[in-house]
Design a protein that fits this description.
The chain is an alpha/beta fold and 260 residues long. The protein contains nine helices and seven strands; from the N terminus they run αβαβαβαβαβαβααβα. The chain is globular, with a radius of gyration of 17 Å.
Length: 260
């Protein structure tokens, strides 16, 4: 079992997808959305994203990942599956394993498209901008990773926290990014498979950027207008911010000692 996988966390949906998954019928885009108690905005955000992707003509699949929700999120996910059976796939974790835990698990096990990536369920980046990112990386084979820089952020103190994170990343890793945690993040599957990932719970985006740099590949950032949450509240807590900072420092030490 790959490092970081939580035993006993998978439902019947994993078994169903494993039977149907096939690399020989690869999608152009495999996208996942981690969901943790997002009943207030999940239906609106997901339907808007699905409709934009369908209209774009991109050959895609969307993995709706219930990351330990205890509200009505699972019922909404099931209804979305019935409405969009061709595009939606379901994964469910019984317990919340943080955003990075869900991303690390699902990207390694199930995302097999030519381009893979993740987005969030709160609607803070529009569906139109998500499709814009997907088209850019699909049409430009010299881009290994593409992500957003969120402008005019509306999430208060998190803007200043992100400013500190960006400064740390620039000074410790020499990565020129204006928004290290900007999402969605999309990357080429062939490059993702070559990455040496330590599977941190919070700094997976930093890991992607660092590995792209080590491979001398190109990443590209697109500026987008930050949107207000469509509903619900942020799930990031003070303890998560502390863990995030500690993981950045630990990751720099490990990459310095081991060179990867």
């Amino acid at each position: 079992m790959p490092r970081g996988l939580a035993t006993g966390s998978f439902t019947k949906y994993y078994k169903i997808m494993k039977e149907k998954s096939s690399v020989t019928h690869r999608k152009d885009l495999s996208l996942m959305m981690s969901i943790y108690n997002e009943e207030d905005c999940l239906k609106e955000v997901s339907e808007e994203l699905l409709d934009y992707l369908i209209k774009s003509g991109i050959n895609f699949e969307l993995f709706l990942v219930n990351n330990g929700s205890w509200d009505r999120s699972q019922q909404i996910i099931e209804k979305l599956k019935k409405k969009y059976p061709k595009y939606v796939k379901i994964i469910r974790f019984e317990k919340n394993i943080k955003l990075g835990g869900a991303v690390n698990n699902v990207t390694k096990r199930y995302l097999k498209g030519k381009v893979i990536g993740f987005t969030c369920a709160d609607g803070e980046v529009s569906a139109a901008d998500t499709v814009k990112l997907a088209k850019n990386i699909l049409d430009n084979k010299n881009i290994s990773l593409i992500k957003t820089v969120r402008l005019n952020r509306t999430d208060g103190a998190r803007f200043y926290i992100s400013w500190v994170y960006n400064l740390l990343v620039k000074s410790l890793f020499g990565i020129k990014t204006e928004d290290v945690n900007g999402w969605p993040v999309l990357l080429r599957y062939e490059d993702f498979k070559k990455m040496y990932l330590r599977n941190y719970s919070w700094i997976f985006q930093l890991e992607y950027l660092y590995q792209i740099k080590k491979m001398n590949k190109k990443f590209y950032e697109i500026e987008v207008e930050h949107q207000r949450r469509r509903g619900g509240v942020t799930k990031v807590k003070l303890e998560d911010i502390i863990i995030f900072s500690m993981q950045i420092i630990r990751y720099r030490i490990l990459t310095f000692l081991h060179g990867k």
